[in-house]
């Protein structure tokens, strides 16, 4: 019920739109005032309940925006016949609605700003005062002052929506540029048949070496760009830091501790990277690859970029180590070992 109650309240505002038009045609202004107050309360309640119960949804946001606009247009269209100043409020609200439709068509995102919600409340207060002024002509109600205030909020809201759209568009453009630039740097590796074999090398739970290194590489690249470091080397070293020759899971040979995969694969990856991608390698990239397992490797990371690769790789590994499915798998293995120890020999 908690999931649907806010949406029902929102939907009720859409359903009363024909009633508003009917009451307006029949000059039932008192009923319109009561209905406008009811609508304003539901607008307040549905958002408050959705946030309180944690059931905010895209559908609810879209219905909320559509309901507010339909009702505002209905009320304003009625008031225009009594006070032509409401015509400007109606036009401005139409401009905001058209811009929201345009941005939704372009981005598939229903825009919602705080100033927009404030503007909606100001409109409903002005609408209620407009109907009160029709009923009580003998009382001097400063309706036109509220109309001007509403228009100011509408203009400010439209400016904010336009600014938010420009910011979003620039961010999207920058993201596309970064993705293109990143791919141009690492495309010789990603298009290599030898590197593509790493899709079949298991790494962490339900993840391949290819997936792991691609994520580490792109994260390192973004950090490098932000910190004005050598992001090119970070992208390449990130992809090749686990470019060892064979999956360690298939190696059943018992070795001394310091000769096991965790201690040796960094140097193995460096040599293998130098073998297949000599044109991309340099002293810094080689150093980054060979020291990324610090403190398991003997060499201390030499460059700032080396430390970034080391830390990003560790963060990614820890993230997967504490994945719920990974913990379940480890627990099962522990129980199996325990059972084997407790089972008596026959």
Structure, described:
It contains 14 helices and no strands. It is an all-alpha fold. The chain is elongated and about 95 Å long. Mean pLDDT is 81; it is low at 322-331 and 340-346.
Question: How many structural domains can be distinguished in the coordinates?
Answer: 2
State the distance separating the first and last CA atoms.
Answer: 59 Å
Query: What is the general shape?
Result: elongated
Strand content: under 5%
What would you give as the CATH superfamily of the largest domain?
A: CDP-alcohol phosphotransferase transmembrane (TM) domain
Query: Into which percent range does the helicity of residues fall?
Result: over 70%
What is the number of E strands?
0
Radius of gyration: 32 Å
The topology string of helices and strands comes to HHHHHHHHHHHHHH
CATH topology of the largest domain: Four Helix Bundle (Hemerythrin (Met), subunit A)
pLDDT < 50 runs, ≥5 residues: 322-331, 340-346
Structural class: mainly alpha
User: What is the overall pLDDT average?
Assistant: 81
Per CATH, which architecture of the largest domain? Answer: Up-down Bundle
**Major sheet:** none
The CATH C-level name of the largest domain is Mainly Alpha
- Quickly count the helices: 14
């Amino acid at each position: 019920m908690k999931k649907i109650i806010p949406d029902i309240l929102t939907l009720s505002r859409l359903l009363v739109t024909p009633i508003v038009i009917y009451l307006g045609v029949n000059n039932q202004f008192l009923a319109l005032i009561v209905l406008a107050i009811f609508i304003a309360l539901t607008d307040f309640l549905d958002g408050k309940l959705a946030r309180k119960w944690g059931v905010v949804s895209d559908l609810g946001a879209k219905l909320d925006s559509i309901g507010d606009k339909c009702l505002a247009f209905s009320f304003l269209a009625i008031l225009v016949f009594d006070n032509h100043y409401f015509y400007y409020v109606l036009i401005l609200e139409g401009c905001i609605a058209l811009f929201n439709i345009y941005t939704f068509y372009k981005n598939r995102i229903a825009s919602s700003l705080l100033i927009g919600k404030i503007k909606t409340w100001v409109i409903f207060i002005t609408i209620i005062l407009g109907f009160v002024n029709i009923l009580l002509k003998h009382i001097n109600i400063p309706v036109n002052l509220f109309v001007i205030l509403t228009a100011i909020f509408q203009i400010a809201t439209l400016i904010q929506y336009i600014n938010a759209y420009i910011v979003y568009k620039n961010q999207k453009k920058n993201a596309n540029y970064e993705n293109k630039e990143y791919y141009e740097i690492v495309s010789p590796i990603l298009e290599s048949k030898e590197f593509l074999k790493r899709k079949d090398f298991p790494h962490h739970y339900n993840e391949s070496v290819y997936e792991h290194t691609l994520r580490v590489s792109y994260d390192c690249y973004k950090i490098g760009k932000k910190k004005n470091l050598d992001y090119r080397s970070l992208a390449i070293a990130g992809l090749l830091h686990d470019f060892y020759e064979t999956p360690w899971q298939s190696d059943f040979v018992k070795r001394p501790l310091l000769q096991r995969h965790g201690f040796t694969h960094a140097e193995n990856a460096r040599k293998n990277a130098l073998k297949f991608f000599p044109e991309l390698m340099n002293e810094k990239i080689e150093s980054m690859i060979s020291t990324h397992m610090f403190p398991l490797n003997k060499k201390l990371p030499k460059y700032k970029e080396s430390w970034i690769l080391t830390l990003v790789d560790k963060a990614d590994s820890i993230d997967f180590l504490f994945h719920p499915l990974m913990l379940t798998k480890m627990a099962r293995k522990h129980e199996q070992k325990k059972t084997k120890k407790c089972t008596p020999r026959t």
